[in-house]
Amino acid sequence: MDDLFDPPGGQWQPISSRYTSVRRLLVVLEWGLLTVVLVLGLGFIWSWWAGLVAGVIGLAWTTWRWLRMPRIVAAWGWCERGTDLCIRSGPWFRTLRIVPYGRMQAVEINAGPLDRHFSLASVRLVTASPASDAAIPGMPAQEATALRDRITAVAETADAGL
Questions:
Q1: Which terminus of the chain has fewer CB atoms gathered within 10 Å of its CB, N or C?
Q2: What is the CB-side half-sphere exposure of residue 59 using CA atoms within 13 A?
């Protein structure tokens, strides 16, 4: 079954393992803060035991997400081939996206505050169809810049519309 998500003709590159720290921090900020709000809200509005139940469930969910993050990040990968770029993701529900250079209209690099702190960036490939857009998160910033430049050079020589 893994051959289904491993097209021939290229060397798969993983995203940065530092992206695990970014995602774990976001899990704690999102789910941890939501849990605290639920515990306090239910504790004051309803009863202390409702807040306790919400706290246990919220803590379990946050912990599970935090522990799964290395596997989720490890499932991401990208591969340059002659005329296209392959991106795969997902430890449970796996996805493989192959974007031909000829369909690309723009290459975007994004880096939020957390990404910049960890020297990471995301590369987003914009195509003629929004359904075929693709993104590679958690790339080292220098690697993202180099990938952008290579894609732009290949697209210009192929007269791909970039």
A1: N
A2: 7
Element (H, E) at 79: strand 77-80
Nearest to 32 by CA among 24, 22, 21: 24
Which residues contact residue 142 at a Cβ distance below 8 angstroms, ignoring those fewer than 6 apart? none
pLDDT at 27: 94
pLDDT of 100-147, one tens digit each?
887 788 889 999 999 999 999 999 988 877 776 789 999 999 999 999
Pairing of strands 84-89, 13-14: unpaired
